[in-house]
Design a protein that fits this description.
8 helices, sulfur carrier activity, alpha/beta, about 280 residues, FdhD, 6-stranded mixed beta sheet, Cytidine Deaminase, domain 2, about 30% helix
Length: about 280
């Protein structure tokens, strides 16, 4: 199976001094996801947790919703012309009761994220296909102080990032701020899929008492993945996109951006953030 990191020779220049040394890089390889034997999508990812990634991807697309929807996931032997197994092709087998996805899902092309459609059509699709409407879940309340503590906890858990500096991370916390799970990948969307896929396989969906923290920006596809997994709070250390904010407002997702130190912006779902009265009036 592929390794998470690889070594490459580099020329290092520091204050005019030149030296040659090996450097540790994060591995990046394609993963083809097949659904019941039929090619579906290809994504670039860091090898590892591939079954979870595939399962999480299908949760975000509305194909899988619970542990019983999934029959098994296997690496495809004979994925190359000579019959060898590259461990870069997985086949997800669903239970008999799972409906085949709409033809529009069948992209069979390279994709960097679960991008779906664009604009208003995307908002309508997510709102109508979400299995666990966030607005209907029991209230989760978080304080700014709790949110501010999460990035340091995520950073402390990024083991591969310490060696490579080239990975995104996503982490699940419970409403008390305890770290539940963390995954790393070259793609921020893949890191989230690995979290959600592991939860699906463990029978933990919906994640209705969780906070999702991502190490980069909050794009539409990350907000989509949170909504589809029933996660009520999404926080990012960088900016959200306009469509992510629109989706959060449409679905009741609490969306926090620019989470750095004790500063943050709440873009939607502010009712879940416990604000001091004086600060709220300001």
């Amino acid at each position: 199976m592929g390794r998470v990191t690889e070594r490459r020779k580099v020329i290092r220049i520091r204050s005019g001094a030149v030296s040659t040394r090996p450097d540790t890089l994060v591995a990046e390889e394609p993963l083809e996801i097949r659904l019941n034997g039929k090619p579906l999508a290809i994504t670039m990812r860091t090898p590892g947790d591939d079954f979870a990634l595939a399962a999480g991807f299908l949760v975000s697309e509305g194909v899988l919703a619970e542990q019983g929807d999934l029959r098994n996931i296997v690496y495809c032997a004979g994925a190359t012309a000579d019959g060898s197994n590259t461990y870069n092709v997985v086949d997800v087998r669903t239970a008999a009761h799972v409906r085949a996805p709409d033809i529009t899902l069948e992209r069979n092309v390279y994709t960097t994220s679960s991008c779906g459609l664009c604009g208003k059509a995307s908002l309508d699709a997510v709102r109508t296909t979400a299995r666990w409407p966030i607005a209907d879940t029991p209230p989760v309340r978080v304080t700014p102080e709790l949110l501010a503590s999460l990035p340091d906890r995520l950073r402390a858990a990024q083991r591969v990032f310490d060696r490579t500096g080239g990975l995104h991370a996503a982490a699940l916390f419970d409403e008390g701020g305890e770290l539940v799970d963390v995954r790393e990948d070259v793609g921020r969307h893949n890191a989230v899929d690995k979290l959600v896929g592991r939860a699906l396989r463990n029978g933990d969906l919906p994640l209705s008492r969780s906070v999702l923290l991502v190490s980069g920006r909050a794009s539409f596809e990350l907000a989509q993945k949170a909504v589809m997994a029933g996660i009520p709070v999404l926080a990012a250390v960088s900016a959200p996109s306009s469509l992510a904010v629109d989706l959060a407002a449409e679905t009741g997702l609490t969306l926090v951006g620019f989470l750095r130190g004790d500063s943050m912006n709440v873009y939607a779902g502010e009712d879940r953030v416990v604000l001091r009265a004086a600060a709220a009036r300001g």
